[in-house]
Design brief:
alpha/beta; FAD/NAD(P)-binding domain; D-Amino Acid Oxidase, Chain A, domain 2; 7-stranded mixed sheet; 12 helices; about 35% helix; about 25% strand; binds flavin-adenine dinucleotide
Length: about 400
């Protein structure tokens, strides 16, 4: 059995950022990734907030993964009502971005074992035993474990975590040509319940996708393309699942912590998880190093500290799930009325006189005001989603 100090399962943004964090603190983590090449297959709409770049000092220029910058978004509601917002994000090449993170981790001192699937993990009194299908089916003994194995969280479930929250399906076409202007989101409670369709223009191509709890996703996306007269050639189809209800309750257990999608680290409005996943990875790595250092010095340490570190971030707030439940639980009648009140307005820049006008419009629709708390949740939830949704 080979001895390692820290095992990280999963070479996605969460696991790789965890590896960077650990290695930068002077320890050598081992990342296990089942696919032969980091970043592939891509299962992502590839939108990433400017905040993620800033948080992790990632350059937006002179790199191979940024393909287009967007400084605005358009939220479409039924009856073609549209609200403008100021989401600042980049369209990235997700495979190259993940490889960039992997190189950063390796340069800092991490080891990455690709084509190595972790089959089983046992937590015994002597430590963790990590069984892989790698060369010679090597088994590793590790003192600490970060599970960043994605949304399905299969290993986490065998280790007494309960990430079995609902997963929502997403499906996307990469289409030739640039369609749409900004980052566009189309909400419709009947056609795309609990989700939306997106149009993300890139450089000479566009990612058009759907996320919803409804079945027949392909048929729904095809009729969306027809409706929007998006006729470019489909060059790629991708799909995947996303945790739907935000962070899970139990994030840590002695010498194991969950990060990224495995921990439900996804914004439940836009269902983006790159930035939140990387943030959780960073703190998973911090806690892992604290655990190892304290163990060396025989000092008691609780990995519950992980939850406390994360709790200071807005993506952990219960308002996100309240907004999700209320907003996605509304009918098209409600969404249309909401759209009418804010139609063609830049929600982040409503001038004084427009505020008065908007308030007047709201008063004209008393059914919207029936649940003022719900409106407040929508306002606050979308505000957080603007910053943490990708
Ligand atoms: C269609 C779609 C579109 C999306 N669009 C966006 C978007 O535009 N912006 C955004 O921010 N988010 C988006 N998301 C969500 C985002 O992709 C995820 O939140 C993000 O990838 C989570 O990172 P992660 O590292 O937690 O998990 P992942 O990226 O899923 O990485 C987990 C890794 O673990 C590996 N693995 C799993 N099990 C094992 C094992 N037993 N042994 C070894 N390796 C294992 C997997 O191969 C994988 O590489 C989208 C998701 C989907 C499905």
């Amino acid at each position: 059995m080979e001895k390692i100090s820290m095992a990280i399962v999963g070479g996605g943004p969460a696991g790789l950022q965890a590896a960077i964090s650990v290695a930068e603190q002077g320890f050598q983590p081992t990342v296990f990734e089942e696919h032969p090449r980091i970043g592939t297959p891509v299962q992502c709409g590839e939108g990433m907030s400017i905040n993620a770049f800033q948080d992790f000092s990632i350059p937006t220029k002179n790199n191979e993964f940024c393909v287009r910058e967007h400084k605005g978004c358009q939220l479409f509601f039924p009856s073609n009502k549209v609200i403008y917002g100021d989401i600042h994000a980049f369209m990235i090449k997700r495979d190259i971005f993940d490889q960039y993170l992997a190189n950063k981790a390796i340069e800092a001192g991490a080891e990455i074992k690709t084509a190595t699937k972790v089959l089983d993990i046992k937590n015994i009194s002597e430590g963790l035993v990590v069984k892989t299908n790698g060369k010679d089916n090597t088994t590793y003994s590790s003192e600490f474990l970060i599970l960043a194995e994605g949304a399905r969280a299969k290993l986490a479930q065998t280790l007494n975590f309960h990430p079995s929250q609902p997963l929502i399906k997403a499906f996307e076409y990469k289409i030739k040509g640039e369609w749409g202007e900004d980052l566009e989101f189309y909400f419709d409670a009947q056609k795309y319940p609990f989700g939306y369709c997106w149009v993300f223009p890139r450089n000479n191509e566009t990612n058009v996708g759907i996320v919803t709890t409804a079945n027949q996703m392909k048929a729904r996306l095809d009729s969306f393309l027809k409706e929007k007269k998006i006729t470019g050639k489909i060059v790629k189809k991708i799909g995947g699942v996303i945790p739907m209800n935000g962070p899970v309750e139990k994030l840590a257990l002695n010498n194991i912590v969950l990060a990224g999608d495995t921990a439900g680290m996804v914004n439940p409005i836009f269902y983006g998880g790159i930035r939140i996943g990387m943030t959780s990875g960073k703190f998973a790595g911090k806690v892992g190093v604290e655990y190892l250092k304290n163990k060396e010095e025989k000092i008691e340490y609780s990995t519950q500290q992980y939850t406390q570190y994360l709790q200071k971030f807005q993506f952990m707030k219960s308002i996100n799930l309240k907004c999700h439940t209320f907003f996605y639980g509304r009918s098209n009648e409600f969404l249309t009325k909401l759209g009418k009140v804010f139609d063609k307005q830049f929600v982040n820049q409503i001038e004084k006189w427009e505020k008065v006008k908007t308030f007047g419009n709201l008063l004209k629709k008393p059914s919207l005001l029936r649940n003022p708390r719900g409106l407040l949740w929508i306002y606050l939830g979308f505000k957080i989603a603007r910053d943490w949704g990708f």
